[in-house]
Structure formats: C-alpha cells, structure tokens
Design brief:
Layout: E1 2-4, H1 7-19, E2 24-29, H2 35-45, E3 50-55, H3 75-84, E4 89-91, H4 95-98, H5 117-120, H6 124-139, E5 143-147, H7 151-163, E6 169-173, H8 193-214, H9 219-229, E7 235-242, E8 256-265, E9 268-278
Parallel strand pairs: 1-4, 2-3, 2-5, 3-4, 5-6
Antiparallel strand pairs: 7-8, 8-9
Length: 281
C-alpha cells in the first residue's frame, strides 16, 4: 500500500492508473477510522480496480470554537485498518500541501448549506466543498464514496459535483451502527456510559418515526413520534423531517422523507439520520 503525501505525486499516480484504464475508487476521510469508514472502502472496491482513502483533518471545516486541535488522530492505526480491507493507497497531505500560502479560493454551495448543520456551523460546508473539490482534483477518481451518516454533507457534495460537472460517480454507504444502535462516529469515544444511554434515544427516535411512516402516518405524526422518544438530557439542535436531496421541508406527497437529528450530550455533539419513507425510488 502506497502512502502519497504530495498533490503532484498523487496526480502523477492517478494519471498512470488512467493510462492503464484502471478505475479509481476514493474515500475521503479525516482519519481516526472505524468500521463505518472501512465499509465505505469495501463499497468503493465493488466499482473500482484501485481504491484509495485520504486522511486529512481539514482545518477550514472547523469553526474557531470547535475541536480542531482535539480532533483524534491515529495515522499508524488508520494505516493498518485500511490495509486490512485491501486499500491500495492513502493520500496523506499536509495542511501546507492542500492550502499553500496565499490560497484564497473557496467553493461554496448556496442554499442547502444555510440550513440545519449549515445554520449551526456556518463555515463548515464551505470548508467541506473546498477540500473535496481539491481532493477530487488531486486523486482524479472515477468513483467517490461518502457515508449516509453525514446526509446533509452528501447532499451538498452531490450538488457541488453536479454544478461543477465533476465526472465522478458518487456512491453512498449505509450508516454502520454499534450493536446498541448508536451510529458509529469517531466522537463516540467521548461519551460516558450515562451519556451513551441518552444518546441511544436518537436512533430510537428515528426508528419510531420510521414505524409511524411505514404505517401511513402523516408528516406531523411522524415528527411527533420522533420528538417523543428523545431524551431530555440532549441539548437539541434540531429533530426534523426533510427532503434528502434539498434539505427543504417535504410535503405529505414527497417521495422521500429523511429524519435528521443533532444535539449535544455532555460535551459531545451527535448527529444521525434515517430514511423514513421512500416511494418510487
């Protein structure tokens, strides 16, 4: 498995693979990997000949108040994990490499980024789309894989790819859950046992909403079911039902309803989502 640290070297490697008519699959990550990330690498493998992951803790998607310095890092552990699922290369650039002195171009998707995660973390998605565009231009993949757990990120990246005409196929990997139902996240390590119990009410709330939707419940009934299950210990940012492509409020007739929840327990912010209804998809 190759570890590539410069953009020039990455682009050279990608062009070599392209000349050999090999399809490149790519999973962008911020490291500190868990089984959820590894499942995305496996998914990339189903549609590509050569699969790589990037490990880059992207400073531009953290607000000044957020935990950039505290963000957990374990490159040696990550390397062993991706090797175990047959990853062919890791793109592991420095901040200097991705944001050279004087870099002042940002990629900003309007509209969808102003709601939900975008409202709570105003500069976050701008950082995400800027780095993803840079990573795409470095790795030049045929297929890119993102996780459903960050559903709004998926929608934003999808919109960027469409608007900027990236010739890349986007695959979305299902959210992996711990045996107790908690969505896998690098931040789960910060939860105390008591915090975790409260955190479990998030996936319980989404499942309850899914049940009500499955039995033909109205949007209002689905939202009520979701809110009724949430622990009062969660400092809730939002718990809502949206259209998964636009993150607008759906109507009773919308073909897809996505339940989304975010909130903080103790010092840990958790997000989760679940498709509640999908008709004609």
């Amino acid at each position: 498995m190759q570890v590539i640290t410069s953009v020039a070297e990455m682009q050279h490697y990608a062009r070599t693979l392209q000349r050999q008519r090999l399809r490149i699959g790519f999973v962008p990550t911020m490291g500190f990997l868990h089984d959820g990330h590894l499942s995305l690498i496996r998914l990339a493998r189903t549609e590509a000949d050569i699969v790589g992951a990037s490990i880059f803790v992207n400073p531009t998607q953290f607000a000044p108040t957020e935990d950039l310095a505290q963000y957990p890092r374990d490159f040696e552990g990550d390397k062993a994990k991706v090797a175990s699922v047959g990853c062919d290369f890791i793109f592991y650039p420095t901040t200097q490499e991705m944001y050279p002195a004087g870099a002042s171009t940002i990629v900003n998707v309007e509209g969808i980024t102003s709601r939900y995660e975008g409202a709570f973390r105003p500069t976050h998605f701008r950082g995400v789309t800027t780095i993803v565009a840079k990573l795409f231009n470095s790795v030049m993949p045929d297929v890119a894989v993102f996780g459903q757990k960050d559903a709004q990120q998926v929608a934003v990246v999808q919109k960027m790819m469409k608007d900027l005409q990236f010739p890349i196929r986007l695959l979305v990997g299902q959210t992996l859950r711990e045996p107790d139902g908690l969505a896998m996240s690098s931040r789960n390590v910060y939860l105390s046992p008591e915090d975790r119990t409260h955190g479990l009410s998030i996936s319980a709330a989404l499942r309850a909403a899914q049940q009500v939707a499955a039995h033909g419940g109205t949007l209002g009934q689905v939202e009520q079911a979701m809110h009724s299950q949430l622990s009062p210990a969660i400092a809730l940012d939002y718990a809502d039902v949206v259209d998964p492509e636009t993150f607008d409020h759906p109507t009773e007739e919308s073909t897809q309803w996505l339940g989304i929840i975010a909130g903080t327990i103790g010092r840990t912010r958790l997000i989760d989502n679940m498709l509640l209804r999908s008709m004609g998809h």
